[in-house]
Amino acid sequence: MITLFKHSFRFTDHPTPGMKLHYKLFELFVYACLVWFVMHWAAGMATLTSQHSAGGLAHYFPVEWMYGTIFPWINATIITLLLLFGFFRVMPRLLLTSAFILIHFQYVARYTMGKLPHESVFLGMALLAFVLAVWVIPKPSERIRFVFVFLLFFMGLGYVMSGFVKIIGTFLVNPESFWSDGRHLWLWIASRQVSILTAEGTYALNFMQKMAQINWYLATAMLTYGLVAELLGFLLWFDRTRWIGAVLLIGLHTGIGMVMGLFFPFFIAQLIMTGFRWDRLLDGAPHFRLKDNYL
Q1: How far apart, in whole angstroms, are the C-alpha atoms of residue 137 and residue 290?
Q2: pLDDT tens for residues 109-146?
Q3: Is 0.85 surpassed by the pTM of this model?
Q4: Which residue, of 52, 57, 75, 125, is most buried by count of CB atoms within 10 Å of its CB?
Q5: Residue 199: other Cβ atoms inside 10 A
Q6: Of 62, 72, 67, 133, nearest in space to 102 by CA
């Protein structure tokens, strides 16, 4: 397995200055996005007053005291400081691990009563990779390989499994109703239309939605593209095909935004930062020497 990863992901044992800079820029991106999320969750908890149906860890750990109080903001501020000092490798094991635990608690407290959004999932996986790196990789220069291999493997696996779940949940259960049938897209567009109309009082179909609704073949082609893009998520594992997988998945999320009105800017940004070899571009540009103790 180690040999497979070594020849598939193609991350060198001796990182170049461009790889080091790319690594730190990606780490900064992850931490900045996570700070935005915990602040957003804190604002959401300020409007909550009760817990109707506990889920996940909330079954075992009370979270009601977080609702309608200043505590979510305090937690978000602590997380921000932990990530800031952890970025500069000030007691990274303690601070980054503490930040990971507090972020997960903030997430659980915010969404224990309803549907769990998944846009922050890969950001959380990236933070987990950084936490594991500072714990299990003693040589700082080797952490670059570990973080990107860990993250790209699970990103690719996540998309592939998502594709298989769609196939298992439709075709294998009911062969007459395949997931990529265009009529399913019509149903989802109508459901989205009702949700927004109920919340905002008005909703108008955009051009892509109108085209999908009047042409079954086009709607089916859209869903088929999405399914194929997910099943090809394993392309992220290989250096030569990673950019192809990234382009397919960026197209997938762009299409979801255009057709369903569900936008995933953090997913797209993370795919852009991890799906292409930016280190090669940075190697050819003027740069400063980044010390290994900041990796």
Answers
A1: 18
A2: 888 766 677 889 999 999 999 999 999 998 888 899 89
A3: yes
A4: 75
A5: 9
A6: 72
Mention every residue, 6+ apart, whose C-beta is less than 8 A from residue 55: 111, 112, 113
- Is 182 in contact with 219 (CB distance < 8 Å)? yes
DSSP secondary-structure letter at 11?
A: -
Total tally of structural domains belonging to the chain? 1
Residues contacting residue 187 through CB under 8 Å, at least 6 positions apart: none
Count other Cβ atoms within 10 Å, centred on residue 292: 12
Cα 109 from Cα 51, distance rounded (Å): 10
Domain of 219? 2-294
Residues 78-109 have pLDDT tens digits of 999 999 999 999 999 999 999 999 999 999 88
pLDDT tens-digit series, residues 164-208: 998 887 766 666 678 888 888 888 888 888 777 777 777 788 888
> Pseudo-torsion of CA 129, 134, 135, 139, nearest 10°?
120
Alpha helices (runs of H) in the chain, residue ranges in sequence order: 2-9, 17-45, 71-87, 92-111, 121-136, 143-169, 182-200, 207-214, 216-231, 242-260, 265-275, 278-283
